[in-house]
Structures are given as structure tokens and as C-alpha cells.
Specification:
alpha/beta; Rossmann fold; seven-stranded parallel beta sheet; 13 strands; globular; disordered N terminus
């Protein structure tokens, strides 16, 4: 802990990206934790969300002019949970680089300057190099070079290298890297629909009677987790004397068959090239915001083993991957949301 903090007073935690999908769950988990004295949530816009022990402040990590304010907020912190991330605009990777990579560098610099004892960083399964889709799953030692074609995976992998250097140069800061699969909850559904399907995709279309078929193609296997379960892992990593990376995912691995069951549909085999071609055309016409490069990356993501999180954090998901995905689908249909700007609930628009 910082010398200015009495351990009996509890931890003072700063959370960046505190109003997003993961941030709202992490802040809630920390607000309930007795060993946490206060939470400062940093975001670009102050939310209409009131939680115990929690206050908010506005910081835009992509702006150099906000660096002094960021440093001020972090200088007395006992721990920083860095979650801030932008998925859009996919047509301007330089913009996401400024927010995600340069913004993260500003956070890491402020952590070092403020001698913050603990840094918990939101990495991702997307940081991993292509790997096996079947078997027991890769451990945290699997290479983290990402898939070079997609901005998201490039950025996640680049920050892994940055943290390698940070840990070498700042050994007194305990660094933890969380590598979850796809994170879903009902309250984030509207935001995720806007990010990946577009603002004008009607949530009501994801109904069994309107989607009788689910495409099945090579590589369609991925891991999911309810966001609240991921937040519990963040809380545990913050409070335990652990370092390094932790894979986070729930069982079972999602495939076309499980998707079909959720949608009360049947699978139909299609060439993945046809799916990519349709997605690429929609992206180039700016009909769909999700890029075909991200599609390529998802098809190459390895299945992860989560033994380390279960053994060293004492962590266990409370919901299955199917339940997490089901919550997301329910939120898309109903316009689920939360009292923050990123998570505003809408069925369309």
C-alpha cells in the first residue's frame, strides 16, 4: 500500500473505464467488499449511478491534456484496475490506438509515478496467438502476439509487451493481467448490439421465430463468461497476493449447436468464406460496424484453460456460458441497459 494509507482503513481503488460493461460490474463488486474503503470511477462522462463508497470523475485517456488530472487521481491510490477500452471506430484504427494503447500508456506511467502498489489490467483472450479450438485449453503461458489483422487483437497484444517491460522496471508494483473470454450480461446488451451489429439493428430480430437457422462453419467455437463473474475474479485478484495472467471463462465452450439451442433454431453448414464476404461487404458499406478482420481473429482464438484462476484465486463462475449468453440475448430483445452513457438501454438506435 501507499505510505499515506493505513491498512486498517481499507483500500482506495481507482477504476478506469468504470461505466462500461466490465467497469459497472467491477465497481459494484468493490463497493460491496468490506476491505475496500473507497472506489473512484474514471470515465469520459459522469454517470447517473449512485453506489456505496463510490465517487466519479471525468477523464479522457486519449487526451494528453488530461494527463495531469489522471496523475492526481492515481497518486494516493492503493490499487488501479484498468478497464478503459474503445471498440469503435473500426474504420479508423488510429483513433482506437490513441484511446486504447496511448491511453493505457498514460495509465501505466501514472501508476509508476504515483508508486501505486497494485495494477490489475484488462487483457483478453484476444491477446493470444492463434491456437487450438479443442482439447484441455491453453494455459497463461501460451504466446500473446494476437492476430495481426485486427486492431483489437493487435492492441491487446501490444499492451502485453508493454507490461512485460513495466514489470521489469517497476518490480514493487504487483501487476495482474486478466484474460477473459467474451463477457456478457443483460445490462450491457444494448451497448454490445450497437458496437457489433450497429445502432439500427432491431433487438427484436433475435427471436426464435425470426431466426430459424444458425450458420455453422469452421472455427466457430468461443468462450464466454457473465460479466459479474469476471468482476468477482478482478476483486479476488485485487485482494490476494498474486501476479501474472489469469484466464477467465465458463463452461461449456459455445459453438453453433449451443447457439441454435438458445435461439430454438437449427444449424446449417455454410463456408466461412461466404460469411466473411457478407460481413466484409456490410462493413465496407458501413452497414455493420464489426470488421471482417475481427471475424478472422475470433475464428483463430484458442480455447483457454482456467485452472490457475480456480486454484490461486479460489474463483468459480456462478453462471454457465449458456446462461451468460442467454442474459445477453434477453437484454438485446428488451433493450437492457444501465444508468451510464455507454450502457444506455435501447432496442434500436
Amino acid at each position: 500500500m501507499n505510505a499515506s494509507t493505513n491498512p486498517s482503513d481499507g483500500l482506495r481503488v481507482v477504476v478506469t473505464g468504470a461505466t462500461g460493461n466490465v467497469g459497472t460490474s467491477v465497481v459494484r463488486a468493490l463497493a460491496r467488499e468490506q476491505r475496500v474503503a473507497s472506489v473512484l470511477g474514471l470515465a469520459r462522462r459522469t454517470p447517473r449511478l449512485t453506489l456505496p463508497k463510490t465517487r466519479w470523475a471525468e477523464v479522457d485517456l486519449s487526451l494528453e491534456r488530461d494527463e495531469p488530472r489522471l496523475a492526481q487521481y492515481l497518486e494516493d491510490a492503493d490499487a488501479v484496475v484498468h478497464l478503459a477500452w474503445r471498440f469503435q471506430p473500426t474504420h479508423d484504427p488510429a483513433e482506437t490506438w490513441r484511446s486504447n494503447v496511448l491511453g493505457s500508456l498514460r495509465v501505466f506511467h501514472a501508476v509508476a509515478e504515483g508508486r501505486v502498489p497494485v495494477l490489475v489490467h484488462a487483457s483478453s483472450v484476444g491477446a493470444y496467438s492463434p491456437g487450438p479450438k479443442t482439447g484441455a485449453g491453453v494455459s497463461e503461458s501460451w504466446p500473446t502476439h494476437g492476430w495481426p489483422g485486427a486492431a483489437y487483437t493487435r492492441e491487446k497484444a501490444y499492451l502485453e509487451r508493454v507490461l512485460d517491460t513495466f514489470e521489469r522496471d517497476h518490480p514493487l508494483t504487483r501487476v495482474v493481467r486478466m484474460r477473459p473470454g467474451f463477457l456478457f450480461k443483460e445490462e450491457s446488451a444494448s451497448e454490445q448490439r450497437r458496437i457489433f451489429a450497429g445502432r439500427f439493428f432491431p433487438g427484436g430480430l433475435l427471436r426464435p421465430e425470426l431466426l430459424p437457422l444458425v450458420p455453422e462453419f469452421e472455427g466457430l467455437r468461443f468462450q464466454t463468461l457473465h460479466t459479474d463473474d469476471a468482476a468477482d475474479a478482478y476483486r479476488r485478484a485485487l485482494l490476494r497476493d498474486v501476479r501474472g495472467a489469469f484466464n477467465l471463462a465458463a463452461d461449456p465452450v459455445i459453438d453453433a449447436g449451443i447457439l441454435a439451442e438458445l435461439l430454438d433454431a437449427r444449424t446449417v453448414k455454410v463456408p466461412k468464406g461466404a460469411v466473411r464476404g457478407a460481413l466484409s461487404a456490410a462493413w465496407r458499406l458501413r452497414v455493420a460496424p464489426a470488421s471482417p478482420d475481427l471475424f478472422d481473429a475470433v475464428l483463430r482464438l484458442p480455447v483457454m484453460a482456467t485452472d490457475r484462476a480456480r486454484e490461486e484465486l479460489g474463483w468459480e463462475p456462478t453462471m454457465s456460458s449458456v446462461e451468460a449468453l442467454g442474459a445477453f440475448l434477453r437484454g438485446v430483445r428488451t433493450g437492457g441497459g444501465d444508468a451510464t452513457a455507454p450502457l444506455t438501454g435501447r432496442r434500436i438506435g
